[in-house]
Design brief:
Length: 329
């Protein structure tokens, strides 16, 4: 059986601005893919990995060029390289299979039913005063786990400010490669008194050798440095955790492989996302029960979300309405 594919680009406004060390965004362009067969339709959403040079138009064109694919998701991994295009098609095929078989995606994947999970809430990069105010609001809105975007210079002041704004919150930080050339162990030690429990991607991807011999008092997590299972070898011994993002890995199918191999190697897991709607993070939500940290707040950072999507309240995310993605109505 083959599924017919269509792809379209959608633009979603960000709530305010989303700022990291590489720049700010006021909107995100995502690609919506539908896969149709035997009167049923599955949907998948992906966000292009801009730091890999992907664009929404390029991703949509890659999907359109396929035209139709077999329902075999393993075969898809040979038809498209890792990245957003394969993620969108893979997600649409998982959803289509659920509709055709009457079996939820989580059950087909051999996972526990995802009912709810605590997700991090992102504090965008800014001046310490702004980040303190954002953290104070986040704590007032009952977000117990915050993820801070850092930039290298001035990071200690930023973390201290967020801790003042949210004295009871758990903190993780994301350097987005901005600590390249800095003393990573010393930077981490300075953050230890503020209760930081994880540091994402301190150095540039491809320069992971800079972490050889580094003994950090806070676990280091590979993000840009770990796209899929092929990257695990260069992460082992340098990082203590990896951040699994479906847009990087090229879909839930590849992410399941990555998760299994990373756990076997003794690495802790985080599941993360790009800016996206609930449709984009729904497949990743299936992995939440296998990970130590969940960072799937993409829909919360948008001005609006898709109708019927995942539920967010009090720092937790919960299942979407039946039939939204990978579920059976």
């Amino acid at each position: 059986m083959r599924a017919t594919l269509t792809a379209e680009v959608e633009r979603w406004p960000v709530a305010g601005a989303f700022t990291i060390s590489r720049g700010a965004k006021t909107h995100v362009d995502v690609v919506l893919v539908t896969a149709s067969a035997e009167g049923a339709t599955g949907r998948g959403e992906a966000t292009p990995i801009y730091y890999h040079g992907e664009t929404a138009e390029g991703v949509a064109a890659a999907v359109t060029a396929l035209g139709a694919v077999d329902l075999d998701r393993r075969a898809l991994m040979g038809a498209l390289p890792r990245g957003a295009a394969r993620n969108a098609v893979d997600a649409a095929l998982w959803d289509l299979a659920a509709k055709l078989d009457g079996t939820p995606a989580w059950a087909t994947a051999g996972l526990a039913e995802p009912k709810h999970a605590l997700t991090a809430f992102t504090i965008s990069l800014g001046e310490p005063e702004r980040m303190e105010a954002d953290a104070r609001k986040a704590e007032a809105d009952a977000h117990p786990l915050l993820k801070l975007k850092l930039a290298g210079e001035g990071d200690l002041a930023r973390v201290a400010a967020v801790r003042r704004g949210a004295p009871s919150a758990r903190l993780i930080v994301d350097a987005n490669e901005a600590w390249t050339g800095r003393d990573v162990a010393a930077e981490a030690a300075a953050l230890l008194p503020y209760g930081v429990e994880l540091i994402e991607q301190p150095v540039k991807a491809g320069e992971d050798h800079l972490l050889d011999g580094v003994v950090s008092p806070i676990p280091l997590c590979a993000d840009e440095s770990c796209q899929d299972a092929a990257d695990l070898a260069r992460c082992i011994g340098r990082y203590q955790a990896i951040n699994i993002k479906l847009d990087k890995a090229g879909g839930l199918t590849a992410a399941l492989d990555l998760a299994a191999q990373a756990r076997a190697a003794g690495l802790d897991l985080m599941v993360g996302c790009m800016l996206s709607t609930s449709l984009g993070v729904a497949p990743a939500f299936l992995l939440a029960g296998q990970t130590r940290w969940v960072d799937l707040d993409g829909p919360l950072l948008l001005a609006r979300d898709r109708p019927g999507g995942l539920r967010f309240a009090g720092g937790y995310m919960g299942s979407a309405a039946p039939g939204f993605w990978g579920t059976v109505s």
